[in-house]
Description:
Keywords: Sigma factor, Transcription, Transcription regulation. By secondary structure, the protein is mainly α.
Amino acid sequence: xxxxxTPPVTDQQLVAQVLGGHTAAFGQLxxxxxxxxxxxxxxxxxxxxxxxxxxxxxxxxxFKNLAGFKFQAKLSTWVGQIAYxxxxxxxxxxxxxxxxxxxxxxxxxxxxxxRGPPPLVAGPAxxxxxxxxxxxxxxxxxAAIEQLPPLYRTLVALYHQQELSYEEIGQIxxxxxxxxxxxxxxxxxxxxxxxxxTYHRDDL
Length: 204
């Protein structure tokens, strides 16, 4: 007799299991959300030594506040919000800059919002030589992303790597969707400037 695959545990079921004292269920919650938490902590916090403690603090807060989760957003989004706020508190305590206030506003924010951010790395299958070039380009791009202010790095990671929607990013960061779009526009503009500067240095 064939067995149908077991349907995945829903957010509601998982939370109920954790609150019911099932230790393994909390481990599943961590596995389900650790990719997002890792992106947030790694993009917002530059000091590697502080990252494990912050990630642990995030999940301690999740466990402590789980009974108050009202399912007004996805569980992963709620955990991401806790991670973002934990990192934000760290940056504020260290008096570190989250975004560059001197960065000029986008030339046309409304147009930027309509277009949406393009893919950071191009497309379909390539031949080996092109794939190698793509790998080099991805490395250069990754280095440029790491030079962005923490907020821009974080938004780029959430949108392009975690593939979250503007709405989900707004829920995590408590930023309006329009602000998320504009900051992503600024981040891409900075990346373009720094990538062009890198190529110009290489051509000298």
